[in-house]
Amino acid sequence: MAIASKSANYRKVKNSLAKWMITLGGISVLFTLVLIFMYLLYVIKPIFESAKVDITAKFVINEEYKVLATGVDELKEVAYSITEQGKINFYQLVDGAGHKAGEKILSQQLVADGESLTQLINVGQKQKLLIDSAGNVQLIVPSFTANFTSGKRVIIPSIRYPLGEEYLPIDENNAVITQLSFAMDDEKAIFVAFTQDKRLIKTTLLAEDDFSYDTAYEAQYQEIDYEAKQVNDILVSSGLSMVFIRQNDQVAVFSLDDEAELKATIIPQLAQNKSTPHHITTMALLSGGSSVLLGDDKGSVSQWFEVATDQGREFKEIRRFKVSDNEPVVAIYTEQYRKSFYTETPSGEMGMFYTTSEADLWRGNLHQGNAQALSIAPRADGLVMFSNNELAIFSVENEHPEVTWQALWQEVWYEGYPEPEFIWQSTSGSDDFEGKFSLVPISFGTIKAASYAMMFAVPIALTAAIYTAYFMTPGMRRKVKPTIEMMEALPTVILGFLAGLWLAPIIEIYLPAIFLLLVFIPSSVFITAFSWHKLPRKYKSLIPETWAPVILIPAILLAAYAAFALSPVLELHLFGGDIRQFITNDLGMDFDQRNALVVGIAMGFAVIPTIFSMAEDAIFSVPRHLTSGSLALGATQWQTLIKVVLLTASPGIFSAVMMGLGRAVGETMIVLMATGNTPILDWSIFQGMRTLAANIAVEMPESEVGSSHYRILFLAAFVLFVFTFVVNTLAEFVRQRLREKYSSL
Question: Nearest Cα to 453, choosing from 590, 657, 725?
Fold first, then answer.
């Protein structure tokens, strides 16, 4: 009795310990999933936060003359102002380097004594084009150098002259210039100006080498055929490709290509209403110089750029932003590297917008009345403003303006595209590039890849599971089932490698054979089975029952050989010797070597063991008394299989299919290596795709930590997480319903 009691206590302790260990393991799994979910949300959250503009410092600056321009260094420690008297003043914004905040640390005269500035043109955010009262033109760049003295950083301001300190020869007739714009690259600088004698001129400075401080250059003069009594605005694109000329409500565009004739393309006038006509009040070029922003007196800003139409390339209004209900737009300030811009009205109301995502980011009043001068910090993280003898510095939190739900999930009209589209293109070789972060193509690619894989895997895996569990002899089953389950241990990178470098070229060369296999293999199986059925019993007895299914192997191999042997003949007589050209030219479908067909076959092989193993276990686990009872009542084996076995095993079979789907959705390496990774929306079996998992694997290593691209990749992971969670939850719900329905059998 004592020994039995001791054994029972020992067993009780083991049961209790196992119970707690299993419970702890389950809770740990759930806790880990919750942590993953919360971390994904933590990384994603900043991209949906609203923009903020807050004042950080304000100084009283008693400038004697009107301020025409202002700016600040990248670290927002030194600001400057350029007055109409032609003087540039630098101010310390933080205490340090022997200066107090708000103190003037440097002042320099930019024009000759007795002269003043009649015009100042901001070229980007760094270069300033100066025109004095004598008609002289000069290009300056306020520059800042960081020095470290005694372990402390000191910002030292200075002035650079990219085209030299001599005045620039804009007009060969030396006429007074009333409007001027400018842009330059390493090889040339282009000026477009309107003179007092009503001429529109183009002046090109060609450098003998790349432009530097003391580079010699040659001036070329050209007069543009354009009649106008006055010109309100001139803007030269940063790429030196176009110039925009505004005359009241008409905007003309000229190509600056050296080989093209300078002819005007007129942008259609703003939509007019006879009772409330719109009039253009200001104009600005968006970052990159492809889009022009037009502000009007009804408080709207419209974006225009060139699109391809049946009549050629035309400028179209793409989108419109409502800035104010009752005030005109008097100024538009654009960022240098992003598609963001600020607007200003006469009362001082300001707005912050982003064109690609059509985002209305922020509204507010930073000052009373019009600002004398306003500039965006080089890193777009601040503003500097002169207004009412005050220098104000503002901090801007606007790290992810390109991300909105509309930009992620709806069609967006990008610069240069003929119509709105779903596009994923996160990087480019150009700084003028606008990020395209639509999650639709890669989500679609995930569904497409999984669909083709399941179309290949489910029929094979389920029929194999049914035969193995229900018809196959025990001896054969003990060999076949472990062999197929071992396939699951095969690394998917090997399958992807074989699919991309071996299978894809074979399918491309023998494409007709792939479609013949769909006919020949089932036909060979049925013919072989029918022949075996008609075979006399004395011949059947020569082959052991265990090895009877093996006779299908030579039949299938013979069918495959016939398909590949007939492929060149079929391609020659039906498709003119080149089925790929037939698909492209006659059917109008693109053909990629690494396409959905390759992915479906390769990923299908990766999914088959998962579905087979679970489905086979579910079918084999059906109680024998159910099948025996059905057969005893007169049902055939097939009737028993369909009416009893499959219904009873349906919860397990459904779970197997859903597990296979989850494996296909999350697969990375096969899709990465066996497709062209093209994020396109096309169900064609001859086109590739890019999936969420593959996209994360490809782009995460090259993304900047904390950038919009980085956080959107985490959002893609979150979408994949939610997708699999929802699918698995629905699968569990359906499985439970099936179990309840057929548990009484």
Answer: 657
